[in-house]
Every structure is written in structure tokens, then in C-alpha cells.
Amino acid sequence: MKEKCTIIGKTCPICNDVTSGIHYGIHTCESCKSFFKRAISFKKSPKFKCASSQGTCALSPATRSACQLCRFEKCIQAGMLPSLVRQRGERGGRAKLYLKC
Question: What residues does the Nuclear receptor domain cover (predicted)?
């Protein structure tokens, strides 16, 4: 029998909000999951600019929308995998990626 991962009490490594499950390889919140999907699937190479021009913006649930560049870079650094984002029109079920708890 497969062991289930529990996500109770986990925080999103990108914005520190409550996680909703494993998305694109890591535990994230719904907001960061959606942001990452839009950034990858609608643009071949996202071209974002840093709001502070320093690349060190603080991200929280209240400020996560302020700087797309810092948020996208933090998604990549946290381990979100662009290869798991389905492209428009591409069909498929859940990614067959098994993570150890």
C-alpha cells in the first residue's frame, strides 16, 4: 500500500501561505501554482522585471503579486519543474512523478 504524504501545517516555500498539495514537484499554495502555470504555459520565456530593481523582493501572501520576477525565480529555486506544466491543448492526467515524503 502506498504511503500518503501529509501536508498539514506546511507552508509554501515561495510566499509562506498554507499549501494545498504537491504542484509541479513541490508543496505549494494554489496562488503560486497558478502563477507558475501561467508564467510557463503562456510565454515561451517569461520576461519579468523586478519591482525593486534589486531582485530581492520579500514575498508574503499580501505582497506576492508585487514582483513577478522575484516570485518566478523563487519558484524555480524552490524546485518547481517547468517540464511538468502541460502546454495548451495538451491532454493528460496527473504527472507520474513520485515524491518521497
Answer: 9-87
Separation between Cα atoms, residue 87 and residue 7, nearest integer Å: 27
- Please name the residues in contact with 23: beta carbons below 8 A apart, sequence gap of 6 or more: 32, 33, 36, 80
- The DSSP call for residue 21 is E
- 3-state SS, residue 32: helix
Distance CA(59)–CA(40), nearest Å, equals 20
Q: What is the pTM of this model?
A: 0.77
Contact between 84 and 99 (Cβ < 8 Å): no
Beta strands in the chain (DSSP E): 21-23, 26-28
Q: What is the pLDDT of residues 51-69, one digit of tens each?
A: 888 888 999 999 999 999 9
Domain 21-80 fold: Erythroid Transcription Factor GATA-1; Chain A (3.30.50)
